[in-house]
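Appendix B, record 7
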Amino acid sequence: MSPKFKQIIDEIPGRRLAVVGDSMLDRFLWGRVDRISPEAPVPVVRLEKETIKLGGAANVAANIRALGADVTLFGVWGHDSEADRMSELLSERGIDADGMVRAADRPTTIKTRIIAHNQQVVRADREDDTAVAGEVAERLVGGWRRAGRKFDGLIISDYGKGVLPKSVLTDLIDFAREQGIPAVVDPKKGDFSQYAGVTSLTPNQKEAEQACADPIVDAESLSRVGATLLQRTRSEAVLVTRGENGMALFEPAGKEHHLDTEATMVYDVTGAGDTVIAVYTAGLATGADFFSSAALANHAAGIAVRELGTAAVTADQLKAILDPEVS
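C-alpha cells (predicted):
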C-alpha cells in the first residue's frame, strides 16, 4: 500500500461528512422458481427469505460510516413503517439521522426486488418524485444550515426523487462554498448546469453522455465530454465512472487521468456509484488531491461490485485489497 493511500484511510475517521439527497430502502425477496404460473406466462417464485438494506443517499451514508468517519444524513421520508425501518438501520450503523424530515404527503421510497436463483426477476418501486416545497423544503434547508459548521465535506446524492429541486441545490452549493468544504454531486439526470459551483461530480458514462448529448465512442469524445462538464458546472474536477473501462478524471487546463478498473469479479453493480462518491469525497475531506481520492474510490468500487445488492466497503477491506500481504 502506498504511504499516501494509508494516510488517507487513517485520516478519514477524524472527519465528519454530510450526505443530502434521496434516501430509500432496498428490499430483496429471495426464492426459487419451480414452475410457470397457470394465470399468465410468468414464473412463480416461492419466497424463502427477505432482506432490507439502505439505499440511495442512505447507502452513501452507510459507506461513509463504514470507513470510520462520522456522517449526518439529510433527506425526506414518510410517516410510515418503512421510515421506521430505515431509522432502525441508520441507528444500527451509527448514522446520525437528525437531518431527516418527515413528510405527511409522500411515502418513504422503497425498491422491492424479487430474486430467484440469484437473478433478479422483477423490481417494484414505491415512490413520489415530485419536488419538495414549502415547509418540508424549509426544514430540510434549515437542518444543514444549523449543523453545517461541523462538516468537513458534503455529498449531494441526487437520484431524481424530488428531494433536490433547483432551489435546494443552490442553497446547498452556496453554503458549502461559504464554509470552504468540498461539495461533490452524484447526478442522475437532467441539466448538469443546475450543479454549477460544486467542487466535483461523479456521473457514470451514460449520465455524462446524456447530459452532453454526446455519445462516448473513443478517447476524443470522452475528453470532449469531460471538458464540457467542467465548463458547464464550473467544477474543479469531474470523475466519470465507466464500468469495466474504469474511470476518467478531468481537471481544468486539459488535465486527464485514466484509471483501469480494479474489479476482478463483477456480481452486481447496484450501489457501486454510492461507494465511489463516498470514498472519493471522504478522501477530499482529508485534504487529499483529486487523483489520489479517485484512485482510492476505484479500488473501493472493485470491492463493492463483488456483492449482490448495495454494499458498504470498510476501511479494513480497503487496506486488505491494497496490501494483501498484511491483511
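Remarks on this record: The CA atoms of residues 237 and 251 lie 5 Å apart. The two ends are 11 Å apart (CA to CA).
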